[in-house]
Design a protein that fits this description.
- The complex is a heterotetramer, with two copies of chain A and two copies of chain B.
- Chain A is of the alpha+beta class.
- Chain A has 13 helices and eight strands.
- Chain A has helices at about 10-25, 30-40, 60-75, 80-95, 95-110, 225-240, 260-265, 290-300, 305-335, 340-365, 375-385, 390-400, 410-420, and strands at about 115, 135, 140-150, 160-165, 175-180, 185-190, 200-210, 215.
- Chain A has a four-stranded mixed beta sheet.
- In chain A, a hairpin with a 2-residue loop joins β2 (about 135) and β3.
- Chain A is globular.
- The termini of chain A are far apart.
- By secondary structure, chain B is α+β, with helices and mostly antiparallel strands.
- Chain B has three domains: about 10-120, Acyl-CoA dehydrogenase/oxidase, N-terminal domain (Butyryl-Coa Dehydrogenase, subunit A, domain 1); about 125-220, Beta Barrel (Butyryl-CoA Dehydrogenase, subunit A, domain 2), CATH 2.40.110; about 225-370, Butyryl-CoA Dehydrogenase, subunit A, domain 3 (Up-down Bundle), CATH 1.20.140.
- Chain B is about 50% helix and about 15% strand.
- In chain B, strands 1, 2, 3, 4, 5, 6 and 7 form a seven-stranded mixed beta sheet that branches.
- In chain B, a hairpin with a 2-residue loop joins β8 (about 260) and β9.
- The radius of gyration of chain B is 20 Å and the shape is globular.
- The two termini of chain B are about 25 Å apart.
- In chain B, about 65% of the residues are buried.
- Classes of the chains: A alpha+beta, B alpha+beta.
- Chains B and C meet through β6, β8, α9 and α10 of B and α10, α11, α12 and α13 of C.
């Protein structure tokens, strides 16, 4: 009674099929574009998508196994980025077959790269409060507005754009989800520098940007429902490390990878595996935060300090529990169940881990924790004194630690979701769900 | 690799136990029993054995049990913790039966475990002394060979259900080192004094032995090893119990937050309260993962059991305590009253933190195990 | 420039006057009633009250010095309890001269003991949501309802009663503050046992209780304003230890102290002080929480544990800061200023201190922390084993630690007050300030 | 007994400093200066001395200062911290001048302090080495007698404003033990290398000395005592600075919470945000009390200065860091950007926690002082 039945023996069959297909198709001398064409049209780029959307309808965990197996085989993996993660699943779920054939095909074959144009300076936690405005113009729309926190904005061919199409409707009822061509005048992408000194994200200014009539995914003014589908795919990705095994090679026309030789970008081949292996490839383990700081503590001669030991074990404990929580979700999903709220729990726990890691890491660094290189020259100057390659990782993570409690729904929003959706606690009064958006208070 | 798959049989076990406890261990019974000296209802103990087979659930079939694993036992402890069951279950099954099973003493197992499985015998493990050292490293109780057997002299303290247990397993210093001994309920020279506990739902006693006849369990000198494994299994049981307790505290808080009106709104609509409840869910589900993992390691006889059990014990009892304290705060004044059940969970939680070693000591143990 | 001018040299003069008066008037052979009559009518019982209310209009800190000086002299102090702390100041502030002469006189002379009938089972944080109903009846009122958290309920002659006199008005506008005779049929006082096992408080059931027309302090339906005055006096008392030096001898007709010999209840005389002392009596220092636990840690051999040392110092730090915060308020008030929110800060800090004390104390106790005697027999059984008189103090405080974050305005209410009244943050929407009370949602 | 009375003169001082800094150290200037190598504007430093007399505020009148106490100086540091002033004030006044005043070396004081008070000389104290030990117990820099003077060999690290200071006071091992030495800006054999700092508003450097001529300050062997007192005074300065920083973070958070609309309401109307701001006030006012107390103990030459300074340093920098981190969280995404000032305070706060010993080390010191 203690062993769960394996779900329909499919993983092994699937991986056998994949390996046979790779034996047949993988050729390092193909261009990246040629290889992704083969991979995507065979259903191996986004196998979790339905079969009418270039997928194979497999479970999320099987999809992870597939991408890991491609990497283990030594072949170039599926095109990465937000197309495969968010746009593809959204269009597969909410788009017409024509839209799927136009857009998902280009996603799974890596022809187009995508970015996300959701958040605005005035609409962060309250995404539905967005004010970017799309006005009908002939058989299309003219869009004006400003977006923010757009990653890869300058490498994207297309954007997932949320714009307000009816300001007189209540705020959730006047939004449309558009496919927006990023390669047109009126789009300006500006890097947004973070407190770490890096610019992982962009601001995107939209000035009289044109969007075609058939670019709306789902119905006009029903974009909030579509956006929620996108956000659900995003949360699933954030919580479960769903990108593991996916190649970092950027797809699309701008990054310039399509004409490179596929073999040059493929990972070095793992140890050959017995072809009869009945076990799926084990995920490669990144060194945990706790492991990194344990080594750091030893190096700084602090690992015998009882205060340090307690906090290292707290960090280790949270890491272990994160892993175990994920395992429990996996076991539940394997039998078609779920553990509600576990995604939000994972996100809140990540915030806690990052804070603990930040405070402990810099305390272990001691005086050296005051040092940080914001550019290569500075980094070299720090290393010249400290000669410890772990220190920049510690200081960088400590600065970055402020981001996870904010992005993808702040800690406060996660707690609202758990409270209201999982525990069934009542919402706050004064809902604006019936008020025309144009009459609501907004940021200046 | 850990497998968290939940079988239909486990779910059915959980439903049965929950139904049984809803019937036999409502708040009124908890309050009645916590005010008695014995602290439990022998009739209910018999029913737990006869109707549900709980004491023998993880005892091998050939020793009168059902042969299930610690994973199933964890389900039982979780439900018992949720109901604050007043019962010798933890002492008998979580400690004593585990000590016997860890002893490799076939004769002793054959004699005692069938009685335990049948609900005919309650038992406990007496190992800590007045110092409160849970490792028993400072054991002063001595065991002296006497004819075929042994005699014990000394004392034990903080003995769970020590005043009522039919069988007392005692850690004592024999010439070969720490060893495990069995002492009968009515053995000569035993005195049992109740120790009034903050958590009145689980009784403790101080026992003294003066030339008390005892039977060696396992081999002489094997006591430290038996105790280490038993402590881990006891910690895994406490962790599961704490998870159930934490879940119940959260349920109480959420229910109250939905019903209680202040300022014209249910208090659960205020973020201050809503977010407290949300944080409870984070802890409850995380505790459950930790507790199930420890149970799974126990079921697998994993060499990592000790680490997993310490991790679960530290995390789950902390989570239980935090949840229990926050439950009082969510309830406000009524949660501070004796008549409300919130304090019973609070006290059980605090006692669970301190029993078998406090969270900091378990974290230090983990540090040693993972090479810090 | 660093030394503040002493405020008008009054403390020394006052204390000289007091000592002279005590030389003249203190006689241990008086009955308590006789002594309190002298003390109260001379203005020494509640010297912070205005002179038309049997006081001397002195500052709060001078009032504390006076009560300490009476104790130091060896005379019986002013009557204690909620009359002097709350009812007296409230009536002095909001009552008519006739009411002052009737009630405050009895308070300062200890003739009557008071209790507070504010909180209700359904109205805790939201005190203004109270539902005890007063209906006009001839030239008085008939009150029905239930009160809770009433301390000294069974020793009180009179109660400060809040009742709803107009349920059709918005909730704050239909409440009246009454003086309620506790010694009448229809009043039932039931002890309410707390989780500590003690019963410091009572429930009070009011069934057709009669209140006279002239028992209303302030206007009818204006009781919320009066209640806020009472609550302000309560907060001041909670925050600044305003009861120090006040005798624990219970006043009023029920406790049975009035006919006792005053000298038998007076404190043993302190060391004689130089009568020319220009320094006010130093407040006697109760051992701090940190000091108690430092001793406890040493006794349990834990004081060398770095984890314990850190937490002991955290506790010490919070204690020091509490003291310093109070000193800053005192310095500000001495020049007619204030540090807004400091009362709320003190209350929140007390909650933190109590939790820290609880967790550290029981951890230091180790296994013994699981033991507690809920009655004398149990307590003796615990002591027989542990032989440590500090342990029961630690376990009792640990149980009691749950109360301070709740009573006198929960931690959450304190944070609302700081946020809205001190920092000026906006209130939550959906205020019910205009809705008739009868139409508001209420507890069943 | 501590006296927290605030004189009109102190209030006027605060207003003057605040006006000056609003004018001379707005965010744009902070950002301009933090990107420079020097890290401060010499013209503003001169103005601070000539117009307000800040460097000499607590230097005795006979040494060119104004003769006020550390209580007044704390007001200045509080305002400087609030404005994130980029300036050698902390190094020159909080460290070096205090070291000179603690040295009992009249000649040195007469030579250097009037220049410092006049704004003609900036200075720093170089005591920590690569190990980052703030007690200088592991000092490897040596001082060797050479003719009338001494020569220094070795290195110092984490030297605040070490690349720009005109006067470098160095702790070195002389034959009689740790001693304090003065090294001129242009002395032979000194190399100064900038250490890139996370907090770019306060520069640090690593200095090396090779046969560098130096002047003994105070008596040989007196270095440990001078350093101990100077560290306490430096901690008191940092505590005041942190209090100002924490106050500014709270003000930023509160202002944003009032203005920022989400879900049709100012976010400050949500309890999650409101209560964060309230907790900031608890910390800010408590930090202020601790910082003022340390300053008062410094002004009084109290024997308890070291304990009060450690308490203030630990509490105030923790409060500053917590407030700064929460300020980012209240701001959400915009608070994580480089262009918003929130991160500048966050980095100053973290650096202030670590500088002169982290909070845990100060708490351990307090434990020793109060007899734990």
């Amino acid at each position: 009674m203690t062993v769960a039945e394996a779900p329909a023996a499919s993983p092994t069959d699937l991986l056998d099929e994949l390996r046979a297909w790779l034996d047949e198709n993988w050729d390092p001398d193909l261009t990246v574009a040629q290889w992704w064409e083969r991979l995507g049209l065979a259903g191996w780029s986004a196998p979790a998508l339905p079969s009418n959307a270039y997928g194979r309808d497999v479970s999320r965990s099987d999809a992870v196994r597939i991408s890991q197996e491609i990497a283990a085989y030594g072949a170039l993996g599926a095109p990465g980025g937000l197309g495969l993660l968010l746009a593809g699943p959204t269009i597969a779920t909410c788009g017409t077959q024509e839209q799927i054939d136009r857009h998902v095909r280009d996603i799974v074959t890596g022809q187009k790269a995508w970015c996300q144009l959701f958040s605005e300076p005035g609409a962060g936690s309250d995404l539905a409060g967005l004010t970017s405005r799309a006005v009908e113009d002939g058989d299309g729309w003219i869009v004006n507005g400003q977006k923010v926190w757009t990653s890869m904005g300058h490498e994207a061919d297309l954007g997932m754009l949320l714009a307000r199409t009816n300001p007189e409707a209540p705020k959730h009822a006047g939004i449309t989800w558009f496919v927006c061509n990023m390669l047109q005048p009126g789009i300006e992408v500006r890097p947004l520098r973070e407190m770490t000194g890096n610019a992982m994200f962009n601001e995107v200014f939209l000035s009289d940007v044109r969007v075609d009539a058939d670019a709306a995914i789902g119905e006009v003014n029903d974009g909030w429902r579509v956006a929620n589908a996108t956000l659900a795919f995003e949360r699933a990705g954030l919580g479960t490390g769903g990108t593991s095994g996916i190649t970092p090679v950027v797809p699309g026309t701008i990054a310039g990878n399509l004409e490179k030789r596929a073999g040059d970008l493929a990972p070095s081949k793992s140890k050959p595996k017995a072809t009869t292996s009945s076990q799926p490839a084990a995920p490669r383990k990144a060194p945990s935060a706790a492991a990194m700081l344990i080594g750091f503590a030893k190096k700084h001669g602090r690992s015998e300090d009882p205060l340090v030991r307690q906090r290292l074990v707290e960090l280790h404990t949270l890491g272990e529990i994160g892993r175990l929580n994920a395992e429990r979700v996996k076991a539940a999903k394997a039998v078609g169940k779920d553990i509600p709220g576990m995604g939000n729990i994972g996100k809140l726990s990540m915030s806690t881990v990052m804070r603990l890691q930040r405070d402990l890491g810099l305390e272990l660094a001691g005086a050296q924790g005051m040092l940080h290189g914001y550019d290569e020259e500075q980094a070299a100057a720090v290393q010249a004194v400290v000669q410890d390659p772990v220190l920049p990782a510690v200081t960088t993570m400590s600065l970055y630690a402020q981001a996870p409690p904010i992005y993808g729904g702040t800690d406060q929003i996660q707690r609202n979701i758990i409270g209201e959706r999982i525990l069934g606690l009542p919402k706050e009064p004064g809902s604006n769900s019936k008020v025309p958006f144009s009459e609501l208070p907004k940021n200046a | 690799m850990v497998d968290f798959a939940v079988s239909d049989e486990q779910e059915e076990l959980r439903r049965s136990v929950r139904r049984f406890l809803a019937d036999k261990s409502p708040s009124s019974e908890v309050r009645r029993l916590m005010a008695t000296d014995e602290g439990y209802d022998p009739a209910v103990w018999t029913q737990m054995a006869e109707q549900l087979g709980l004491p023998g659930l993880a005892i091998p079939e050939e020793l009168g049990g059902s042969g299930y694993t610690y994973v199933e036992l964890a389900v039982v402890f979780e439900e018992a913790g949720a109901a604050l069951l007043c019962s010798p279950l933890f002492a008998t099954v979580g400690l004593a039966a585990n000590a016997l099973l860890s002893s490799d003493d076939d004769a002793a197992m054959k004699e005692y475990l069938p009685q335990i499985a049948a609900g005919e015998l309650t038992a406990t493990l007496a190992f800590t002394e007045d110092s409160g050292d849970w490792s028993a490293a400072d054991t002063s109780t001595t065991a002296t060979p006497a004819g075929d057997g042994w005699t014990l002299d000394g004392h034990k303290s903080f003995v769970v259900d020590g005043a009522t247990a039919g069988l007392i397993l005692v850690i004592a210093n024999a010439p070969d080192g720490l060893s495990l001994f069995a002492v009968d309920r009515d053995a000569a020279g035993v005195e049992r004094a109740a120790l009034p506990t903050m958590d009145q739902t689980r009784k403790q006693a101080r026992l003294t032995f003066a030339g008390t006849p005892a039977r060696l369990i396992g081999t002489a000198g094997a006591g430290a090893g038996i105790l280490a494994r038993t402590s881990s299994l006891g910690c895994a049981a406490l962790a599961a119990e704490a998870t159930g307790g934490a879940q119940r505290c959260m349920d109480m808080a959420v229910d109250y937050a939905k019903a209680r009106i202040q300022f014209g709104r249910p208090i659960g609509s205020f973020q201050a309260i809503k977010h407290k409840c949300s944080d409870m869910l984070v802890e409850v589900e995380s505790a459950r993962s930790a507790a199930y993992f420890a149970a799974s390691e126990a079921a697998d006889n994993s060499p990592d059991l000790a680490t997993a059990a310490s991790l679960a014990k530290a995390y789950c009892t902390d989570a239980f305590f935090h949840t229990a304290a926050e439950n009082i705060q969510v309830h406000g004044g009524i949660g501070f009253t004796w008549e409300h059940d919130a304090h019973l969970y609070f006290k059980r939680a605090k006692s669970s933190q301190l029993m078998l070693g406090d969270p900091a000591s378990h974290r230090e143990f983990i540090a040693q195990q993972i090479g810090i």
